[in-house]
Amino acid sequence: MYIYRKRGIVGPNWKTPFIGPFLESVNPDFEKYYAKWTSGPLSCVSVFHKFVVIASTRDYARKIFNAPAYVKPCVVDIAYKLLRPQNWVFLDGKAHVDYRKGLNGLFTRQALESYLPGQEEVFDHYFDAFIQTSKKNGMKPVPWMPDFRELLCAVSCRTFVGHYMTEAAVKKIADDFYLITAALELVNFPIIIPFTRTWYGKKAADMVLDEFAKCSAKSKVRMAAGGEPNCILDRWVVQMIASEKYRERLAAGVAPEDAGKPDIVLREFTDFEISMTLLTFLFASQDATSSACTWMFQIMADRPEFLDKIREEQLAVRDGDRNARMTLDMLDKMTYTRAIVKETLRYRPPVIMVPYMVKKDFKLSEDYTVPKGSMVIPTTYMALHDPEAYPNPESFDPDRWITGDAEKQTKNWLVFGTGPHYCLGQQYAQLNLMALIGKASLEVDWKHEITPLSEKIKVFATIFPQVRTVPFLA
Q1: Quick one: which H or E segment has residue 439?
Q2: Where is the signal peptide (predicted)?
Q3: Considering only CA atoms, which of 465, 470, 448 is closest in space to residue 344?
């Protein structure tokens, strides 16, 4: 069956019965991924019962992203058990489009502005903590990626659910979320067996869902009492309340044109439905932003001339007041800081592959049709390292976004995907990283202990530096 499905595209000539290359994939090697991508525009492997086609070019990736009639996001089999089968990310067609419409209002400019005070509050707390940790350690280099993960988890939770969640719960989620990530890797066993990665991942996912459901219940009470919305959850609940009042007015006989129809009319979502959606937001953001943050801080430490330019710009947009609180107008003026963030996301894209399930035979090229039931995985890395779009792609060059034509390469900019499943929070993610590095440049300094492995890439859902040690200085 494997040879029949392979039909001439690049791939092993045979597979180990049942498990395929499972053992060599337990500790994924970026260099092997890269070799696979460069072996041909289409290649394949087979793991367990899944036949997997890998699409390496920009055009193939875009074709897959924009083919909802043929493919749907699938993550891995175990994802349905962790995220729940009724989760909105598994919806297809019109149901998925309609659900997304109800979420668009959570990422408007007004909404993004309202989230900034909470984000900055978290930054203040963790920068102080980072400095104290470094002092206690005698300013010796220590691994900081786990701390960045906790910081980004805290920022996400504050943005998603405000102060409804306790600091202890945030810390628990930050500590345990990697269990969910590990459970959702491609090469795990497709069933839950006690004391395996999938078992621990399921327990962690249950805990996160429970915490978010509690927050939802609290928000509904507070918003019904007229509270001011200050997080994504609040804004979603306010939309539901406005929609229900509109339906009540219609039921009372008020003419539609006089009933005050909201921009988006939503149904009532249960606490658990809201919880599932917030979990997918966290799943989409936690590992990706942790990756981008880790690379960005390392690169700025290794290239202090870039960090100096960020500091100069930060003081300029604040009119010399380094204590000025962040606003969206201020972020709009951060041309160089934005270039640093975009170049980080291009140079070391957090999401390097996006798995899809093929719903029906999909003619991907003139010579090859991906069989129904297969998995097809477009990579974003090659499009973002295409020398025709980004000259000297292995060089970190933020000026390509200012004086170059990188902004014009929209077809190659696949950091957040494209098509019907593009990332809803892409603007939020970039603004969050800009706010983070901008504030850090004014309040702390940091050094990086460079080693031969510093630029080597480790794959764990996303990509990280293999060595991640840095002390924070006041």
Answers
A1: helix 426-443
A2: none
A3: 465
> For residue 209, which amino acid is it?
L
Q: What is the dihedral of CA 223, 226, 231, 236, to 10 degrees?
A: 50
> What is the DSSP code (8-state) at residue 320?
T
Compute CA 252 distance to the chain's CA centroid, rounded to the nearest angstrom.
Answer: 44
Residue 70 CA to residue 206 CA, distance in Å, equals: 32
pLDDT confidence of 450, banded at 50, 70, 90?
Answer: confident
Q: Within its chain, how far is the Cα of 207 from the centroid?
A: 20
What global pTM score does this model have? Answer: 0.92
Q: Which pLDDT value is given to residue 17?
A: 52
What phi and psi, each to the nearest 5 degrees, are found at residue 179? -65, -35
Question: Residue ranges for the binding site for heme?
Answer: 423
| Contacting residues for 33 by C-beta, under 8 A, at least 6 apart | 352, 353, 379, 459
Residue 228 DSSP label: P
Q: Which of 352, 331, 348, 351 is nearest to 437 (CA)?
A: 331
Mean pLDDT of 210-215: 98
Identify the H or E element spanning 464. strand 462-465
Q: What is the maximum span of the chain, computed from C-alpha positions, in angstroms? A: 73
Q: Can you spell out the DSSP letters for 64-111?
A: HHT-TTTEEE---TTHHHHH-TT-GGG--HHHHHHHHHHHHGGGSHHH
pLDDT digits (tens, 9 = 90+) for 244-300: 999 999 999 998 888 899 988 999 999 999 999 999 999 888 889 999 999 999 999
What are the structural domains of the chain? 78-303+346-352+395-473 (1.10.630.10)
* H or E element, residue 183: helix 167-183
Token pair, residue 325, equals 């609180």
